[in-house]
Design a protein that fits this description.
EC 3.1.-.-, 47% helix, 4-stranded mixed beta sheet, zinc ion binding, 158 residues, alpha/beta, Collagenase (Catalytic Domain), 4 strands, endonuclease
C-alpha cells in the first residue's frame, strides 16, 4: 500500500498510527497492495471551505472522502476472496482534528480514537460504502465497528 499523509492542520496528530490503521483497514478489505491512498489533515477553516465547496454545507465537518477511481462495494479496487483486484488510486480522506476533538469529548473517548474512527469511515466511503439508507447505514457502520475492533486487537494483542 502506498499511503501518503500530509498534516496541514498545525495540530499534533499521530501520523504513524493513522498510516498503520489505514494499511490495516485496506488489508482487511482485500485492497490490492499497490493501491494508493492520501490522508490530509486540515484546520477548521480549510475543512469549512471544502465542506462548502463540495457538499454545499456551511462550517467544518469531521471527515470528507474524495474518491479518485469509481468504486462500489464489490468492484473497482476491492478484492474478492481469491485474488486482489487491480491496483488503483483510491483517493483522499480529509480529517479535521479540532472537530474530531469536540466529537471525542462528547462521545467520552480520546481524540486519537475519534480520528481513527473517522479515518476508517472515510476509507469506507472511498471504497463505495455509504450510509444514506438504513440498510447501507447498518452495513457500513457494522463493517466500521468490525475493522476498528480488529485494529484494536492488532495494536494490543493479548
Amino acid at each position: 500500500m502506498s499511503i501518503e499523509i500530509n498534516n496541514e492542520s498545525g495540530d499534533a496528530v499521530d501520523e504513524e498510527t493513522l498510516v498503520a490503521l489505514a494499511t490495516h483497514v485496506l488489508g482487511e478489505m482485500g485492497i490490492h497492495p499497490l493501491a494508493e491512498l492520501s490522508l490530509l489533515i486540515v484546520d477548521e477553516n480549510t475543512m469549512a471551505d471544502l465542506h462548502e465547496k463540495w457538499m454545499g454545507e456551511p462550517g467544518p465537518t469531521d471527515v470528507l472522502a474524495f474518491p479518485m477511481d469509481e468504486l462500489r462495494p464489490g468492484g473497482g479496487a476491492r478484492g474478492d476472496s481469491e485474488s486482489p483486484a487491480e491496483p488503483g488510486l483510491l483517493g483522499d480522506v480529509v480529517l479535521c482534528p479540532p472537530v474530531a476533538a469536540r466529537q471525542a469529548a462528547e462521545a467520552g473517548h480520546s481524540a486519537a480514537d475519534e480520528l481513527e474512527l473517522l479515518c476508517t469511515h472515510g476509507i469506507l466511503h472511498l471504497l463505495g460504502y455509504d450510509h444514506a439508507e438504513p440498510e447501507e447505514h447498518k452495513e457500513m457502520f457494522g463493517l466500521q465497528a468490525q475493522l476498528l475492533a480488529s485494529w484494536k486487537e492488532v495494536r494490543s494483542p493479548r
